């Protein structure tokens, strides 16, 4: 038993068993999500929990249609087949009992306002905005959600793939909050008995640099 077991327990779960996740458990995961750090504590997230099969089917149809459209534009058959192969990975929410749709509002950045008021070049503003703080806040919240789900015995998967049908899904959901748009979908359910192993990581030497002097 290691102090980091709660981290090692998580992996993406894409196959689920029948059965609902009780609302009180979903609320616990959402509470964990909102304990994440966010830029200037703006908490620029909103979570829409979809447990309605009809809406989920419409979302899946929209993702499939958008996917097929993009595939039809592929430069050759190999590229088309490669893209079509990932479609099931964009539809995990259809196999789970619950889809948590994560909306975000752009980070309200004071430095951008100051620079804009002074007519600074857009290229400079683009560099300042490039860390995409709003999106990073959502990532932190989703990870908290995933850790909570795994440690409560549920299976979940973070997905941005289906966001290519973001406009259509937003219309299907009908959720509106000024300034907010769809960033990700979390599929959530009871994990299947057998699920693939977590993929291997790159060795730390490849992804870590210490600067000591
Ligand atoms: C921003 C983001 C987007 C992702 N989008 C998808 C997705 O659309 N579909 C999917 O099946 N997995 C998606 N994943 C899950 C990754 O494929 C997964 O985290 C990675 O393969 C490592 O596996 P693990 O989560 O089991 O450690 C996404 C993960 C992140 C962080």
UniProtKB/TrEMBL annotation:
Pfam families assigned: Nitroreductase (PF00881)
Domain Nitroreductase residues, every copy: 7-189
Signal sequence segment: none
UniProt name for this protein: Nitroreductase
Gene3D superfamilies reported in the protein's UniProt record: NADH Oxidase (3.40.109.10)
One Gene Ontology term of the molecular function aspect: oxidoreductase activity
